[in-house]
Amino acid sequence: MVESTFSENRHLFSLPSLKKHALGGSFLILVVLFIGFLFYTTLSWMWDDQRLPLSKIVLQGDLTYVSASDVQHAFSQLEHIGTFMSQDIDVLQDSLEALPWVSVVSIRKQWPDTIKVFLTEHQAAAIWNGNMLLNENGDVFNGDIGQLEGDRVKLYGPQDSSQEVIAKWRQITPLINSVGLSVTSLVLNERRAWQIILDNGIRLELGKDSLDERVERFISLYNELGDKANRVSYIDLRYDTGAAVGWFPEQELEESTDD
């Protein structure tokens, strides 16, 4: 009899506890559902094309050849520019990297409607094969040669030889400068032979081998020529020793002097 009473009492006291836990669990589920609903509606609002459109561009960088209108035009070529949340930065970056003169692009979004663009331009060290440009690293890039401020050396060479040619130009330049001259053009032809045009019009044929020694030989010869140097058309240094000198005709020199 005592055992039966104890069992009934335990059953009676457990009912309110179950109800309390059930209510607590239901409340927790409602809270989670409500938070989920708020999160979903907020994301839906933010990803809506009619909400938070990217409408402002801030352009930064020490720029000479790239303008704000160039950036705007590049973006206008995209099929669609999304919202602050939906727009892929990589797409914007790719569109600007295709612009002439652009070397490095950094883009970030600023809440709620702004794109911040930082650009670094290529620094043109030389004109390459007549219609392209080389930066300081010898990389070929597309830029309007007519926009260049100041003169640039003209370098020529086969495909994929730009870094070799610009390195050779930098190596030779101090030697040529030592006699008061400068290189206006350096050519590496398809046969891998080198040719230099100097600012006084003299053409140097250097061939394929021993370039440093042949340039040094030219410097010695040039110093010996003295005033006769203005009559020289070309100097062929493609010999183990010595050089062949080509002279302008006297008549041609007189006509040039009269002009």
TrEMBL record:
<dbReference type="Pfam" id="PF08478">
    <property type="entry name" value="POTRA_1"/>
</dbReference>
<comment type="function">
    <text>Essential cell division protein. May link together the upstream cell division proteins, which are predominantly cytoplasmic, with the downstream cell division proteins, which are predominantly periplasmic. May control correct divisome assembly.</text>
</comment>
<dbReference type="InterPro" id="IPR026579">
    <property type="entry name" value="FtsQ"/>
</dbReference>
<keyword id="KW-0812">Transmembrane</keyword>
<keyword id="KW-1133">Transmembrane helix</keyword>
<dbReference type="GO" id="GO:0032153">
    <property type="term" value="C:cell division site"/>
</dbReference>
<keyword id="KW-0131">Cell cycle</keyword>
<dbReference type="InterPro" id="IPR013685">
    <property type="entry name" value="POTRA_FtsQ_type"/>
</dbReference>
<dbReference type="InterPro" id="IPR045335">
    <property type="entry name" value="FtsQ_C_sf"/>
</dbReference>
<keyword id="KW-0472">Membrane</keyword>
<keyword id="KW-0132">Cell division</keyword>
<feature type="transmembrane region" description="Helical">
    <location>
        <begin position="21"/>
        <end position="47"/>
    </location>
</feature>
<feature type="domain" description="POTRA">
    <location>
        <begin position="52"/>
        <end position="122"/>
    </location>
</feature>
<comment type="subunit">
    <text>Part of a complex composed of FtsB, FtsL and FtsQ.</text>
</comment>
<dbReference type="GO" id="GO:0090529">
    <property type="term" value="P:cell septum assembly"/>
</dbReference>
<dbReference type="InterPro" id="IPR005548">
    <property type="entry name" value="Cell_div_FtsQ/DivIB_C"/>
</dbReference>
<keyword id="KW-0997">Cell inner membrane</keyword>
<dbReference type="Pfam" id="PF03799">
    <property type="entry name" value="FtsQ_DivIB_C"/>
</dbReference>
<keyword id="KW-1003">Cell membrane</keyword>
<comment type="similarity">
    <text>Belongs to the FtsQ/DivIB family. FtsQ subfamily.</text>
</comment>
<protein>
    <recommendedName>
        <fullName>Cell division protein FtsQ</fullName>
    </recommendedName>
</protein>
<dbReference type="GO" id="GO:0005886">
    <property type="term" value="C:plasma membrane"/>
</dbReference>
<dbReference type="GO" id="GO:0043093">
    <property type="term" value="P:FtsZ-dependent cytokinesis"/>
</dbReference>
<dbReference type="InterPro" id="IPR034746">
    <property type="entry name" value="POTRA"/>
</dbReference>
